[in-house]
Amino acid sequence: MSSTSAKRVLIAGGGIAGLATGLAFQQRGWGVQVVEQAEALREVGAGIQISPNGMKVLRALGLEGEILARGFLPEALEMRLGRSGFRLFRLPIKTQAQYRWRAPYVHIHRADLIDILARALEVRAPGSVRLGAEVEGLSAGGHGLMLQGGETIEADVVIAADGLRSALRTAAFGEQPARFTGMMAWRGTVPVSALQQGERPPPTACVWAGPGRHVVSYYVAKGQMVNFVGVVEKDASSPEDLDSWRTSGQLETALQDFIGWHPTVTKMIQSAQGLSQWALFDRPPSTQWVKGPMALVGDAAHPMLPTFAQGACQGLEDAWTVATLVHRAEEDINAGLNAYAALRQPRTRAIQHRAMRNARDFHHQPGFEQFRAYGTLWFGGRFLPGVARGRLDEIYRYDAVAEAESAAI
Fold this sequence. Notes:
The protein is of the alpha/beta class. The chain contains 13 helices and 18 strands. Helix 1 (16-27) packs parallel to helix 9 (311-328), helix 2 crosses helix 9 (311-328) and helix 11 packs across helix 12. The two termini are 21 Å apart. The model has no long low-confidence stretch (mean pLDDT 92).
């Protein structure tokens, strides 16, 4: 492409990772075009956890104040037994996160986060988001996208932020089927006004653990709504039909999946607005992220289970890193993309594995192993909280902004 004008990046996918990537490139003076197949950037009711490592990227993008204005700061990270509600551990983080990990821990409605990212991109690069445009594949040479209808758009760099079933990933590397994990998930939001004082979950990021299933509850929308996600190990005859968390679910089935659980959990399910169900898929870690001037980010590169609340944060880290290293590489764009992949892959691989391990640890069956695991958590949380927080340091203390600036190309 011509070097006489500002370089251009073309991004497939208008989700969190795609919009953040657009903002990161725009901040460096690049022309940005985000192509999204949806007719509007709308999100169904759902919450998201932004841990300190993700907040550092949003801070660098100049969005921390807006996130805090529309988000909720949880008091602690905690785990309870799903049936009895007995608390296994509680790690305060509301003020501690800023001191230990150098950024806050924030819960926010996913629609609010998308709105903040999209509005910022529109202000800084008017007209940069194109809606209602479905991507069919890469153009010849990989410098652009082929859209449905035959149109081709070209740029210096192409970023695939089009999710788990990325069309660009398939176009670049061939079919790599996602695998069903044997788990189904429920998601819903509940207005706090629909819950009596004694029915409300704690103002924390709370995991309710039990045999073969768990629930995560937390507050969003300045504390006016509760978000919950329930994950259940179960068979599905056609899981591919339920691979979107926008699929409506049946209340009776959700209640049956958590029958006998603590009333706080069942009341959240009964009071949910827009209850949805989806099958959880993942893909083994891969080193195939870059092909020519195209690179993968977010779920297109490393789909993650929601059991470690790191999917969005890793997409944010990708966004800042790929923009920084490609811009620093100047004319050698491929060197910048390869440096991005080399820096990000070990971290995302480890977090993918940790998310899968969390699913196993949350779902212990009754017996000695459950007693040992939960007993260890109770003892550590009560007597060794510093050690417990230390296990999170490598994730939350990480600073993608600093790491990208110091990375070799």
